[in-house]
TrEMBL record:
The keyword DNA-binding applies. GO terms for cellular component: cytosol. InterPro entries: DNA/RNA_pol_sf, DNA_pol_Y-fam_lit_finger_sf, DNA_pol_Y-fam_little_finger, DNA_polymerase-Y, DNApol_IV, IMS_HHH_1, Rev_trsase/Diguanyl_cyclase, UmuC. The lineage of its organism: Bacteria, Bacillati, Actinomycetota, Actinomycetes, Micrococcales. Residues 6-182 form the UmuC domain. The active site is at residue 101. The record marks 15 as: Substrate discrimination. Its main location: cytoplasm. This is DNA polymerase IV. It comes from Flexivirga oryzae. CDD domains: PolY_Pol_IV_kappa (cd03586). Gene3D superfamilies: 3.30.70.270, 3.40.1170.60, 5' to 3' exonuclease, C-terminal subdomain, DNA polymerase, Y-family, little finger domain. Keywords: Cytoplasm, DNA damage, DNA repair, DNA replication, DNA-binding, DNA-directed DNA polymerase, Magnesium, Metal-binding, Mutator protein, Nucleotidyltransferase, Transferase. The keyword NADP does not apply. GO terms for molecular function: damaged DNA binding; DNA-directed DNA polymerase activity; magnesium ion binding.
Length: 396
């Protein structure tokens, strides 16, 4: 049967796989990245019931042999770059959607490289040989189905959904396989006896809309029939850059929270400058002891990539949220800078002598690029572990 030309490539347990790659003694053992909160888990740990965002205490209870390793952000970025080099060497039509996954369109490569399944197999072989990481690949006639297929092929597999067999593959799957079916929607559908994609597809659009609302109803009805007209978009730059850090349970002083914020802002703004981007809005995300979350944002008058400007915005938001933090306890701090634009589009204000902080940021970036990220650090971070800032790359 004919094959689709959309590939979804997704690295398996990315952070944990990098740890196992770099330390052979960890291979085959249950590994988690992070301490107080599980940031990533190897498949050996997942087999014991360990899951991302689970507390370390619960993870250790489920898996007494668990090995906890610290996160190494630079290793993840380097591995991601190497993997994407393989992607782009295979086809120029690549759409990255996160640090560890991408869509590829191989529709024009039949004569040069063979069938999509052959290309997918070669992609997996090269990522394993050149980067040392396992990767799963789904192949289908649409982006949505390719992503579902890659998830079904995990770990370290390849699955091609034949053209004409899309609904035979999709309809037996649980409704949670559809984009847009979260906890609330899942409960609503299960309460009405709708457990599979096929059962959902048999509903009329009007009935589905009455259950989940107009927008979700139209969206889920289309996906349940395998309809997804989106193409792989290349050259699209991300619209936000973010990072987060789990800080564990317990009371944290204002100085500790500020140091975490400084570390995150330093890292995010450095990445902005390296990509020649400027942003307009600062978003602060907090997770509390009871696993609830809040989000606060502030838009600055002039788009910038300057560290000091974003520190002012971030500290103001953190100060506003302190009553909640004191009352409920905070276990994770995340930030993102949105509304990104090209640095060359920056609108300067009179007088034009206000770029000294930007020049200083650039000089510090150059020192860190040459001598390492710890060559120059802020006094507030001395003696503190900067921990892990998980990259959040949002293209939407």
């Amino acid at each position: 049967m004919a094959e689709g030309t959309f590939l979804h490539a997704d690295l398996d347990s990315f952070y944990a796989s990098v740890a196992q790659r770099d330390d052979p003694s960890l291979r085959g053992r249950p590994v988690v990245v992070g301490g107080g909160i599980v940031l990533a888990a190897s498949y050996e740990a997942k087999a014991c019931g360990v899951r991302t965002a689970m507390s370390g205490r619960i993870a250790r209870r489920l898996c007494p042999d668990l090995v906890e390793v610290p996160a190494t952000f630079t290793a993840y970025v380097e591995a991601s770059r190497a993997v994407f080099e393989v992607f782009r060497d295979i086809t120029p039509v690549v759409e990255g959607i996160s640090i560890d996954e991408a869509f590829l369109d191989v529709g024009g490569l039949a004569r040069l490289s063979g069938a999509p399944s052959r290309i997918g197999a070669e992609l997996r072989r090269r990522v394993k040989a050149e980067v040392g990481l396992p990767i799963s690949v789904g192949i289908a006639s649409s982006k949505f189905l390719a992503k579902v297929a890659s998830a079904a092929s995990k770990p370290d597999g390849l699955l091609s959904v034949p053209v004409g067999g899309e609904l035979d593959f999709l309809h037996p799957l649980p409704i949670e396989a559809l984009w847009g079916v979260g906890k609330v929607t899942s409960v609503r559908l299960h309460d009405r006896g709708i457990a599979t994609v096929g059962a959902l597809a048999r509903l009329s659009p009007e009935t589905l809309t009455s259950i989940v609302g107009p927008a979700s109803g139209r969206h889920l009805h289309a996906l349940s029939h395998g309809l997804d007209p989106r193409r792989v978009e290349t050259g699209r730059r991300r619209r936000s850059i973010g990072a987060q850090r789990a800080i564990g349970r317990g009371r944290h002083t204002g100085e500790e929270l500020d140091a975490t914020l400084v570390s995150l802002v330093d890292r995010v703004t450095r990445r902005m400058r390296s990509g020649e981007r400027i942003g307009r809005t600062f978003v602060l995300r907090l997770r509390f002891d009871d696993m609830t979350r809040v989000t606060r944002s502030r838009t600055v008058r002039r788009a910038t990539a300057g560290t000091d400007a974003w520190l002012v915005a971030g500290r103001a938001l953190l100060d506003e949220a302190m009553p909640l933090i004191v009352d409920r306890g905070v276990t994770l701090i995340g930030i993102s800078i949105t509304g990104l634009d090209e640095a060359e589009d920056e609108q300067l204000e009179l007088p034009f002598d206000t770029d000294a902080p930007t020049r200083l940021d650039g000089a510090l970036d150059a020192v860190r690029d040459k001598f390492g990220s710890t060559a120059v650090t802020r006094a507030v971070l001395l003696g503190r572990s900067e921990g892990f800032s998980a990259p959040q790359l949002d293209s939407h």
